[in-house]
Design goal:
Blueprint (H helix, E strand, L loop, with lengths): L2 E12 L4 H8 L5 E3 L8 H5 L1 E6 L9 H11 L4 H9 L3 E10 L9 H9 L3 E8 L6
């Protein structure tokens, strides 16, 4: 019993920079964007532009480390750009989805944590556990 599905998403939120500007600054094509929309019924869309690079459709791996590594490879050589984005008011992080049908959990090596530090990225998990009786 272990992970049944996982993926990771590099997220950038900005009140000032349109997602196209973020793409231009990073030189990385996003897997999704959501420009600020003052008319949206959703608060987060009314107050912030959103840019993401997600591994959801890029890898079927059940190893969360592989998903984080895909993102870090996409950002390779972009630590200065990530720092500049934060200096311009952007919030940056990696958000991971992790679903399991039992014991175990995601992990990060010291080497991978050091890579996250280089890019100034916090990392979070949204974790779900299937009911063992249904498994």
């Amino acid at each position: 019993m272990a992970c049944t599905r996982t993926f990771a998403t590099s997220r950038i939120f900005s009140e000032n920079l349109h997602p196209d500007e973020i793409t231009k600054m990073l030189g990385v094509l996003p897997t999704g964007t959501d420009p600020l929309n003052p008319e949206s019924k959703y608060k987060n869309r009314r107050v912030s532009n959103f840019w993401k690079y997600s591994t959801e459709k890029l890898s079927n791996s059940l190893n969360n480390v592989e998903h984080v590594e895909i993102i870090l490879r996409a950002l390779n050589g972009k630590s200065n750009q990530m720092e500049l984005l934060r200096h311009r008011g952007c919030q940056t992080d990696i958000f991971c989805y992790w679903d399991s049908n039992g014991q175990g959990g995601p992990s990060l090596s010291v080497t991978l944590m050091n890579e996250l530090v280089k890019f100034g990225l916090d990392i979070y998990w949204d974790m779900y556990f299937d009911d063992e009786e249904d498994a």
